[in-house]
Each structure stands twice: as structure tokens, then as C-alpha cells.
Amino acid sequence: MAYKHTLLWPLLSFLVFCLIGLGARQAIGTVYGAAEARDLLEALSRAGLYLGSAIATASATTLALMLTLIGMIRRIETDFDRDTYKQVTRIAVLSTVTLMISFLVLLAFTLPIGEFENLPKGWYNYLYTALFALTVGMVALASASVTIVFMTIRSIVSHITPGDDV
User: Fold this and answer.
1) What is the DSSP string of 18-33?
2) Taking the C-alpha atoms of 62, 65, 71 and 74 in order, what is their torsion angle to the nearest 10 degrees?
3) Which residue has the higher pLDDT, 116 or 58?
4) Contacts 24+ apart (CB under 8 A), 20-26
5) 98, CA 20 to 30 Å: which among 17, 26, 60, 140?
């Protein structure tokens, strides 16, 4: 497994999802008033709660599976290079960061935002943009995690499979 490729594909995956999120934010346009922003925040929070909990579950599961993978790698009679263990560490780091961001997103979406009074002008627009960016970041990190998990599994399978077919 070439070192530069192990970082390239997850980074590309992350950037693609960030660009999709940026495009979606541009398509939504400027938020013109507090009432419109509240409606957008309510729509984002409904979807964000489900998405955040699903990504939190996936990230926690990935962390648990990395522990299982480490045990499996140690019992296999094939010797693995340091890059394989670095990949597992990267997966754990990405999953942990994704899990923490999903917790932050879930916490932010549970605030009763529409109930706040006397907020400064433009506050809802900033809040919506920040929550949207956190949601996009969470999804982009999850996509990078999935990409690096795939690459690691592919590398491990190629090590333990006889022949060059994989």
C-alpha cells in the first residue's frame, strides 16, 4: 500500500463531500429574516438529529471493530507492515473525531433555538451556517472514514490472500 495513496483517497472523499455541502449551502442562498432562518433551522435539526445519531452509531461501531481487527491481525500468521497499523490508527482517529463532532451536532440540535428572544440581528443566519457546516463536516469525516476502512480491508485481504488476484 503506497503511503501517499492511503491519504489521498480519504482526503478526496472528504473534499468531495465538503464541496457538495458548499454547493447545497449556496443553493439554499442567503437567509433573509429570523422567521425564515427559524424554519431552516427546524428543517436542519429534524434531519440533523437522525443523521447525527446514525453517524455517531457508525463511528462508535467502527472504533469497536478496529479493536477486533487489531486482535485478528495479531493472530494471523502473516506479518503486516507498519503501514497497516498506521491505517488502523488513522481509522480510529477519524472515527473518534467524527464521533465527537456528531455529539456536538446532536447537542446543538437539541437546543430550543426558536424559543430564544432578543437575539442580535443576524444571529440565526450565523447559527444556521455553523450548524450546517458542522453537519457537512460530520458527513465528510464519515465518508473519509469509510474510504480509509475500505482501503485498509483491501490491504489486509491482499496480504492474506494467496496470489495477486486481489
Assistant:
1) HHHHHHHHHHH----S
2) -50
3) 58
4) 20/136, 21/132, 21/133, 21/135, 21/136, 21/137, 21/139, 21/140, 22/136, 24/136, 25/129, 25/132, 25/133, 25/136
5) 26
